[in-house]
């Protein structure tokens, strides 16, 4: 088999792998029936649907010719590392890492760190724009998650909140 669209082929394989992983993971929970769904029903259906869509994308990539084969280029390491690093930093700052001695710094600090680190993925830092975006995200997240949904998230570090 000759792949005619390399990017779509790899994306389809990724969809299939993630979908099958979710569907398989859902089998560890009671599935139930359509009228009485168990906790594994929804992830099983969504995982199977994602795997099916991935199979369709793989089939299309193998059958339909694209100009130049839509080859996969080199890895974009800077955006990949910045986005992953931003998400890891967000999790560590929000919950802390007691085994290493890093305390929780709260939702606001975690959002500012996430926004500034992720903004480095696109190139030079535009401080004012990123600061405004981080402020809007911090206020919106505080209102949505802490005030409206009443989730027990620390907004500020313990040494500030008391």
TrEMBL record:
The keyword Transmembrane helix applies. InterPro entries: DUF1468. The chain crosses the membrane at residues 41-63, 75-94, 100-120, 127-146. It comes from the Bacteria. Residues 10-154 form the DUF1468 domain. Keywords: Membrane, Transmembrane, Transmembrane helix. Pfam families: TctB. This is Tripartite tricarboxylate transporter TctB family protein. It comes from Paenacidovorax caeni.
